[in-house]
Amino acid sequence: MNHASTPLSASFVLALGLASLASLPVALPGCGQARKGGDGPEARFIGPAKAQPGVNLLFDARDTEEGGLKMSHRFDFGDGSRSVVSFDGIAEHIFDEVGEFTVTLTVADDLGNEGSVSHNVQIVEDYEGCDGDVECGAEDTYCVDRECLIRPYNVASDGS
Fold first, then answer.
1. Pairing mode, strands 71-76 and 84-86
2. 118 shares its domain with 65
3. What is the SS3 assignment for 20?
4. The model's pTM
5. Rounded to whole angstroms, what are the CA distances from 143 to 22, 39, 76, 121, 127?
């Protein structure tokens, strides 16, 4: 039996080559950013670590911008409410009930890479502010201007 070979088209070879390279973390020339499959953006946010129910709280994730890529920020507040998607890194939320809630931030860049981080927020009925880091309770919190705040990795314990 004689098999005749058919030459592969250039577009098939190119598509096959690109498909096999798509999962490698390769830098795009001149951009300095990893392609999908590389490390995702590092998610981080600051916000209240302790508050009273019914108070409008601000969560700020603007520090997650990575090298000029467009970022989306999805906040899940852990209380059964809908997630909030923000393109400027700012979200507001009101916790109606007393309790401890895990707030999760997931960031995604325009290449499809994702990163996430979670912090607990305590909602207490008689919260009047803090007067020192110990009163905030958790290791990843600190006290500034009588407010217990979540400590992102790059904030020193003195708030600077």
1. antiparallel
2. yes
3. helix
4. 0.67
5. 45, 32, 24, 14, 13
